[in-house]
Design brief:
Blueprint lengths: L2 E4 L6 E4 L2 E4 L7 E5 L2 E5 L1 H5 L3 H8 L8 E5 L5 H13 L3 E4 L3 H11 L10 H11 L5 H10 L4 H6 L2 H13 L10 H9 L20 H4 L4 H14 L4 H15 L11 H6 L2 H21 L9 H14 L3 H13 L6 H4 L14 H14 L11 H8 L3 H36 L7 H8 L11 H13 L5 H8 L9 H8 L6 H18 L8 H8 L20 H7 L6 H20 L10 H7 L3 H20 L1
Parallel strand pairs: 3-5, 4-6
Antiparallel strand pairs: 1-7, 2-3, 4-5
Helix pairs in contact: 3-4, 4-5, 6-8, 8-11, 11-14, 14-15, 15-16, 16-18, 20-22, 24-25, 25-27, 25-29, 27-30
Protein name: BTB/POZ domain-containing protein
């Protein structure tokens, strides 16, 4: 830190009966009142350097009593006035980055210019400010920070703008060419722990050496300084993002893992002051959002979601939330489930987490993925066009299309995994509506879920948390589940899951038997309740399914529902009629004959339309194989 001393006389100011005086053989003839305090001083040393005091004294009539001058709006307070007064008496004063702003404002108020006396205080302060303060990094930061106490004076005198320009120029310069502060050098030494290794908490980095010192600035000054730095165009967006993360961690204490507010502290505090603090934090957050670099990946997805949590807590504007949601969607594959668990603090919504904002993020993610296909066209015209090009161009085009497609496909796979994990967490919320759960589950495309185990876990959790769901709602919930994509373990669990609709259980059993048959392995033993249900309706549960006929082919999308199923015609016809009757029940709500059936039997017969078609195919397969035999 740089400092400057002016004057050579010792300090002779003293306080007597709440009045500040200066030791002198000459009696005081001037009384100055500043901020409720009184100073007994002398006209000659002060009026010879202060043009304002000259004018004020000339306006008052001559009197044998000490003349009284009041300075009610004096900038800088008592310390600044006393510093100017001591300068007039030639008493030694020390100037530094901590008091130069108040001294400069006080000198300007008293009009201590060169017109009054050569080498006056304003001139000396300007020389020190331009030659020393603005050349030092830490001095510039401290000086800029001290301008917040005198914003109007600092703006009019150009102190604020000059400090911002000096700081921005130093950030854009290599640190080896900058006069770094003692605090930065000390931080580098303090980061060496007792065993000689670098501390990971404050590990100094040459590229972002300026971020922590700048984090001490208030948001208004910080915003202006960051705008000046970004306009230079030399700092990578990643460093800008790191600096914003440091600043947010410094000034936004509400960014926490759970994102909750201590409501007890809020209720005990004064409501007006609490609202004022919230308003300031909201302004700070929205300013940080406005400074985020436009480049993708400049800040981590986790940091963006923390800002989104803070936006919910502070009730930020909808535009700020939408901007964050859009940015999160661009790199959603980097997020974790805990990042997406944004607390819902709305009084109109009883859910634990803000599901709506996550739905918005997913919608934005799918929108940014809706770009024109990158794979080369397969039409004849396109083929002829490609044949006219060189072989190198063809290879390059194919490689680029594969690369872009695989990246997009990979991100969707990660997001689908993320969504299923998120569904497992929010499914535990008893207030989560079925429609929102289904909407989130159906947001990701079907191809992005290579398996449905995680989705099944989420559905199972939701069914356990919401036992009040009726049959129709359970069917709606399970409609997103694809039994073909369940693992053996998931099939085993689903076959014994009494919360699932029986239609889904039967589908799982069919597919499990089909998989075992195709693999030539042993069919999984059925649960006793399923055995009893099948046996009660003329189906032998112990009969091993025979192999499929190899003389005919079945579409791959249909194989899962009928593979390994071989039953007599009569039984299949009976089951098919029962399925049709159950469809009529679902449509009309009453049995066609007016006689009710047990709910378990109706659920068993409620197989989807596709399996009924498969039974018809199976009949033709069996018929053709029997004719050949």
């Amino acid at each position: 830190m740089k400092f400057m001393k002016l004057g050579s006389r010792p300090d002779t100011f003293y306080t007597a009966e709440a009045v500040r005086s200066v030791s002198s053989e000459v009696s005081s003839d001037l009384i100055i009142q500043v901020k409720g305090s009184r100073y007994l001083l002398h006209k000659f040393p002060l009026l010879s350097k202060c043009l304002r005091l000259q004018r004020l004294c000339s306006e008052s009539p001559e009197s044998s009593q000490p003349q009284i001058v009041q300075l009610p709006d004096f900038p800088g307070g008592l310390e600044a006035f006393e510093l100017c007064a001591k300068f007039c008496y030639g008493i030694t004063i020390t100037l530094s980055a901590y008091n130069i702003v108040s001294a400069r404002c006080a000198a300007e108020y008293l009009q201590m210019t060169e017109d009054v006396e050569k080498g006056n205080l304003i001139y000396k302060l300007e020389v020190f400010f331009n030659s020393c303060i603005l050349h030092g990094w830490r001095d510039s930061i401290v000086t800029l920070q001290s301008t917040k106490a005198f914003p109007l004076w600092s703006e009019d005198l150009g102190i604020t703008s000059r400090c911002i320009e000096a700081i921005a120029s130093k950030v854009l310069t290599h640190p080896s060419k900058v006069s770094l502060s003692h605090s930065y050098s000390r931080r580098g030494r303090d980061d060496i722990s007792f065993n000689g290794t670098e501390s990971q908490r404050h590990k100094p980095t040459i590229k972002g050496w300026w971020a922590e010192d700048m984090a001490e600035l208030g948001i208004d000054l910080y915003w202006r300084t960051m705008i000046a730095i970004k306009s230079g165009g030399k700092i990578p967006s990643s460093l800008i993002g790191d600096a914003l993360k440091i600043y947010a961690s410094r000034w936004l204490p509400n960014i926490s893992r759970n994102g909750h507010i201590n409501k007890q502290e809020e209720s005990d505090s004064d409501s007006d002051s609490a609202n004022e603090v919230t308003s300031k934090d909201r302004l700070l957050l929205e300013s940080i959002i406005s400074l985020l670099p436009a480049e993708k990946g400049a800040v981590s997805c986790s940091f963006l979601l923390k800002l989104l949590k803070a936006a919910n807590i502070l009730n930020a504007s909808s535009s700020s939330k939408m901007e964050l949601a859009r940015r999160v969607a661009l790199q959603l594959e980097e997020a974790t489930v805990s990042d997406l668990l944004i607390p819902c603090l709305s009084y109109t919504n009883d859910t634990l987490y803000d599901v709506d904002i996550v739905m918005t993020i997913l919608e934005q993610f799918m929108l940014q993925g809706q770009s024109p296909p990158t794979s080369p066209p397969r039409s004849k015209l396109g083929f002829e066009r490609r044949r006219s090009r060189s072989a190198e161009n063809i290879d390059f085009e194919l490689q680029e299309s594969r690369r872009s497609s695989s990246a997009s496909h990979g991100s969707k796979l990660k997001v689908a995994k993320l969504v299923d994990g998120y569904l497992q967490e929010i499914a535990k919320d008893v207030n989560l509506s079925l429609s929102k759960f289904i909407t989130i589950a159906e947001t990701v495309p079907e191809f992005s879920r290579p398996d449905h185990d995680d989705l099944y876990r989420a559905i199972d959790i939701y069914l356990k948390t919401h036992p009040e769901l009726n049959k129709s709602e359970r069917k709606r919930l399970c409609r997103t589940l694809d039994c073909k994509k369940l693992s053996m373990e998931a099939c085993m669990h689903a076959a014994r899951n009494e919360l699932l609709p029986l239609r889904v259980v039967v589908q799982v059993l069919f597919f499990e038997q089909a998989r075992a048959t195709m693999a030539g392995g042993k069919v999984t033993e059925l649960p006793s309740n399923i055995k009893a249900l099948l046996a009660g309706h003329g189906i032998d549960p112990s009969r091993h399914p025979g192999p499929l006929s190899t003389t005919s082919t079945i579409a791959a999308e249909d194989q899962w529902s009928i593979s390994g199923l071989k039953s007599p015609k009569s039984k299949l016809s009976t089951l098919r009629m029962k399925l049709a009757e159950d469809d009529e029940l679902d449509e009309n709500g009453l049995p066609p004959d007016g006689i009710g059936r047990s709910s378990k039997f109706k659920a068993f017969c409620a197989l989807p339309t596709r399996p009924k078609k498969m039974f018809s195919k199976l009949l033709s397969i069996n018929r053709s194989s029997s004719e050949k035999n």
